[in-house]
Write a structure and sequence with these properties.
With 225 residues, this protein is of the alpha+beta class. It is built from 10 helices and 4 strands. It has 2 domains: 77 residues, Glutaredoxin, CATH 3.40.30.10; 125 residues, Up-down Bundle (Glutathione S-transferase Yfyf (Class Pi), Chain A, domain 2), CATH 1.20.1050.10. It binds glutathione.
């Protein structure tokens, strides 16, 4: 039975914008595993009941149900050891945590409001209320002054730039889960907003483009607003 991936979608079922789901998409493509995409929208918690929680990605592989992008990546490496994602590298957890806790908040401050425009109307109220409660301000206030914040974002990318000066991929000579963690994070703003957060003429921007071209341009061809 084909692997199924429950992933976050916009009004258009092909409009995929979750950083975590993109990490899993890249991982499955890296291993050459076919999968069926199952679009999931905010508030459809009952559809994830079988996984015992209410977030995507959820991977269903035969009888096995795995949630959480990091857990899914380690599951894939254990179950399908060909073309390793190198998730056994303990320090990769650091990159995952850095992306989730440093990169994501910086990105959110520039694009979170734009998500409202691509999700189904009946989920907008939930999205606005839950995110405004988390930020303690309106979504419009969160992204206010984002043009100025884009310059600071350039500095947030410094650790990546330093690594990419020394090697072509975050994984070294070839892409691995390190690349998919960060590329997954960067697919989020690219998929939800016309506001381009990537610095021009930059090593990280070039690497991101190169990563989107992988797997027959899977991420490059992805829907944008
Ligand atoms: N740590 C989890 C985070 C998963 C997560 O937060 N997913 C979001 C989509 S980007 C979600 O399903 N949110 C549901 C909601 O906010 O109701 C992972 O790495 O997979």
């Amino acid at each position: 039975m084909a692997i199924r991936l429950f992933e976050l979608a916009g009004s258009n079922p092909d409009h995929l914008f979750s950083p975590y789901c993109w990490r899993t998409r890249f991982s499955l493509a890296h291993k050459g595993l076919d999968f069926e995409s199952v679009p999931w929208r905010f508030t459809e918690n009952d559809r994830l009941g079988f996984s015992g929680q209410n977030k995507v990605p959820v991977l269903v592989d035969g009888e096995t149900v795995v949630h959480d992008s990091w857990t899914i990546a380690t599951y894939l490496d254990l179950t399908y050891p060909q073309k390793t994602l190198k998730t056994e590298a303990a320090h990769l957890r650091f990159l995952n945590a850095w992306a989730d806790t440093v990169l994501h908040p910086a990105i959110a401050r520039m694009v979170v409001r734009d998500i409202l425009d691509i999700i189904p109307e009946n989920t907008r109220d939930y999205f606005r209320k839950s995110r405004e409660a988390a930020f303690g301000m309106t979504l419009e206030q969160v992204v206010e002054g984002r043009e100025d914040r884009r310059d600071a974002f350039r500095a947030v990318l410094n650790p990546l730039r330093i690594v990419l000066r020394a090697q072509p991929w975050l994984g070294g000579d070839a892409p691995d889960y390190a690349d998919y963690i960060v590329a997954g994070s960067l697919m989020w703003p690219r998929s939800v907003s016309a506001f381009d957060i990537m610095p021009p003429n930059d090593l990280v921007t070039d690497w991101f483009k190169k990563t989107r071209a992988l797997f027959d341009g899977m991420a490059e061809k992805a829907l944008r607003p």
